[in-house]
Write a structure and sequence with these properties.
By secondary structure, this protein is of the alpha/beta class. The chain folds into 2 domains: 175 residues, Ribonuclease Z/Hydroxyacylglutathione hydrolase-like (Metallo-beta-lactamase, Chain A, 4-Layer Sandwich); 78 residues, Orthogonal Bundle (Arc Repressor Mutant, subunit A). The chain is 31% helix and 24% strand. It has a 6-stranded mixed sheet, covered by helices on one side. Strands 7-8-9-10-11 form a 5-stranded mixed sheet, with no helix packed on it. Strands 12-13 form a two-stranded antiparallel sheet. The chain starts with a strand and ends in a 7-residue tail after the last strand. The model has no long low-confidence stretch (mean pLDDT 94). The structure holds zinc ion (ZN). The site of zinc ion has 5 residues, from loops.
């Protein structure tokens, strides 16, 4: 028998919703912990308590963001197993690196890594039968922050092609209408990109102006997130040749000036 238990980390917030979902995946007497979350003592105790007499085989992370991975190293060391992830990140470095298609077998279960760059370049989803653990690639009740938009579109297609029945996200509730939610995610990104292109064609010349035009008034706490997503769309549009991004002095990774490409108007 294989079962999945969700343990909610005590880190609710504007970027984490109700908190990070840690999953304890149990098959027979074996189990795997996926996304142990932040270093919070109460959460560590909850995970160890849920493992109980089961034999822990691995601690797996979807990506190295601070709300998903930092507890992994100490938890795995305490329980004598390896950590698995795509690549080292600022607060966590997996002791075993997974590549696309790698499989972890435990009990009767097989957890297959699916490289899904976009939210971060190091992001993995994990497929187990008709279920996909989606980390921050697809979450419950919200859209996600995207670092690389072209990759993100491809990674959404990738998960859609697996035809999962159930998505277990890194934040929010389980998703049982997987096909509809993935289609909504793709439609939302396409709409957003069209709005951003329109804003540039209408004269928005800076990321700030684009955010203002597309998102209107934004909760100040979410402003950097909105700017980050807008920038990811702008880079994607520039890659397609519909806009140009001019880089100036001292603006970090934000372009100094954004221009629509005239020949592309109407395409
Ligand atoms: Zn994340």
């Amino acid at each position: 028998m294989t079962g999945v238990h969700r343990l909610l980390a005590p880190n609710p917030g504007p970027m984490t919703g109700p908190g990070t979902n840690t999953y304890l995946i149990v098959s027979g007497a074996d189990c795997v912990v996926l996304d142990p979350g932040p270093k919070e003592e109460s959460h560590r105790r909850a995970i160890v308590g849920a493992i109980g007499d089961l034999r822990l085989r691995a601690v797996v992370v979807t990506h190295t963001h601070p709300d998903h991975a930092p507890l992994a190293g100490s938890l795995a060391a305490e329980l004598g197993v390896h950590t698995y992830g795509y690549a080292p990140g600022p607060e966590f470095s997996p002791s075993r690196r997974l590549r696309d298609g790698d499989r972890l077998r435990f009990g009767e279960a097989v957890l297959a890594a699916v490289h899904t760059p976009g939210h971060t370049t190091d992001h993995l989803c994990f497929r187990m039968g008709s279920t996909v653990f989606t980390g921050d690639h697809i979450i419950g009740g919200s859209t996600v922050l995207v670092q690389e938009m072209g990759d993100y579109f491809r990674s959404l297609d990738r998960i859609r092609a697996l035809r999962p029945e159930r998505l277990l996200p890194g934040h929010g509730d389980p998703i049982d209408d997987a096909a509809d939610v993935i289609a909504d995610y793709i439609a939302h990104r396409r709409d957003r990109e069209a709005q951003i292109l329109r804003a540039v064609r209408d004269g928005a010349r800076t990321v700030r102006a684009v955010v203002q035009a597309v998102y209107g008034e934004v909760d100040p706490r979410l402003r950097p997130a909105a700017a980050g997503s807008a920038l990811a769309h702008l880079r994607h549009l520039a890659g397609q040749g519909t806009i140009t991004l001019e880089h100036g002095e001292g603006a970090g990774d934000e372009p100094a000036r954004i221009e629509a490409v005239r020949d592309a108007v109407g395409t």
